[in-house]
Amino acid sequence: MSEKLPANAVVVESALRSLGATGEIVVLPEKAPTAATAAAQLGCEVGAIANSLIFDADGSPLLVLTSGAHRVDVELIARTAGVERVRRATPEFVREATGQPIGGVAPVGHPAPVRTLVDNWLSKHEVVWAAGGHPHTVFPTTFDELVRMTGGSPVDVE
């Protein structure tokens, strides 16, 4: 399967295997840059999509894995993370921190570990879908597996 995956998805697939993940990367027929487009292609609720949002938290990357049903309250996240300011990262900042493009950022497979917060709302879904390193790729996982694989902290995001 790896030979059919985009290069970034191959890196993510390797990370998933090394972390003992159970899901396989799926290549979608269309890009899935938003939770709504991913959910429509997968036939699931928008809330079961784990959006990978990279923020600039006082100059350091912060990954927030949030339910597609939520908007992130950046002031709440700043307080939760113990930083002065959290703001949306530029595409260049995202690529530097993750090696992946916006719209396809996976929770794993980054050049270096990225501090991660995981939306508690995702625990309401038996299966959660996360990006696979490319806008056309996703993989199924669970809330508990996301927390374990990323070393993330479960939090409320809104």
TrEMBL record:
Q: Where is the signal peptide?
A: none
**UniProt xrefs under Pfam families:** tRNA_edit (PF04073)
Q: What positions does the domain YbaK/aminoacyl-tRNA synthetase-associated occupy?
A: 30-148
Taxonomy, superkingdom: Bacteria
Cross-referenced InterPro entries: YbaK/aa-tRNA-synt-asso_dom_sf (IPR036754), YbaK/aa-tRNA-synth-assoc-dom (IPR007214)
**Stretches assigned to coiled coil:** none
Q: Which protein, by its recorded name, is this?
A: YbaK/EbsC family protein
